[in-house]
């Protein structure tokens, strides 16, 4: 390849990179608007309007819309334009609440109880629940749905004295949090939470009706009663195309945050 050819190829690659960067920025803004319900009737503005609004080329707009279409948020049809096809449910992280308490305004939350049994816990589970290793726990596995659409796969461990009474309750239609408070007579207090992105394994994908390897949001949550006792350890796989997490953070000056809090908190909520 001659020097002029190499220069032209480099220029072309750089132009494509700049367009990809711009498309990603446009897609991020449009994604927020889609999830916030900013487009009446679910119809996005035309390409010409978007080009003017974002001050980018038509090819950049088309690439941005293609990114949203690949995520399953919008659909592009000739003669129709770009329309919203999938809604996401906003799951707040600012308070400790069950799924039905959090998302009841979006539809009916139901639970398919796949497993409900007494097991000997793994050592780590017993440690997190502050139990002797040989003390049995109740294990609960549920697929949770909103208006029939699966949104999460929940794996829950409960101390035996907490979980055993729950085994006779209506777990298909009740949140475990509300049942714990009802049966113990104590309110829940705090929860330790971590969140990470994972890919759906074939089993989880089948249960959640997503493609093998689809993006999921994995939440690990250890919930405590108001007296500090840990009573609910769970791993929750949320569909990334159905749930979005929201919270509000308050800025605290780093020089006044206690050192032990900095070490202990991997997440700010």
Tell me about this structure:
The protein is of the alpha+beta class and 269 residues long. It has 9 helices and 10 strands. A 6-stranded antiparallel sheet has the order 4-5-6-9-8-7. Strands 1-2 form a two-stranded antiparallel sheet. The chain has a two-stranded parallel sheet with strand order 3-10. Helix 6 crosses helix 7 (176-184). Mean pLDDT is 85; it is low at 262-269.
Shape estimate: elongated
Strand order of the largest sheet: 4-5-6-9-8-7
Tell me roughly what share of residues is in helical segments: 25-40%
Order of helices and strands: HHHEEEHEHEEHHEHEEEH
Taking the alpha carbons of the first and last residues, their distance comes to 55 Å
Radius of gyration: 23 Å
Strand content: 25-35%
Compile the SSE list and pairings.
Layout: H1 3-35, H2 47-54, H3 58-70, E1 74-77, E2 81-84, E3 89-92, H4 99-103, E4 109-119, H5 123-128, E5 137-146, E6 149-159, H6 160-166, H7 176-184, E7 188-199, H8 202-208, E8 215-225, E9 230-239, E10 243-246, H9 259-264
Parallel strand pairs: 3-10
Antiparallel strand pairs: 1-2, 4-5, 5-6, 6-9, 7-8, 8-9
Keywords:
269 residues; alpha+beta; two-stranded antiparallel ribbon; disordered C terminus
A few lines on this structure:
With 269 residues, the chain is α+β, with helices and mostly antiparallel strands. The protein has helices at 3-35, 47-54, 58-70, 99-103, 123-128, 160-166, 176-184, 202-208, 259-264; strands at 74-77, 81-84, 89-92, 109-119, 137-146, 149-159, 188-199, 215-225, 230-239, 243-246.
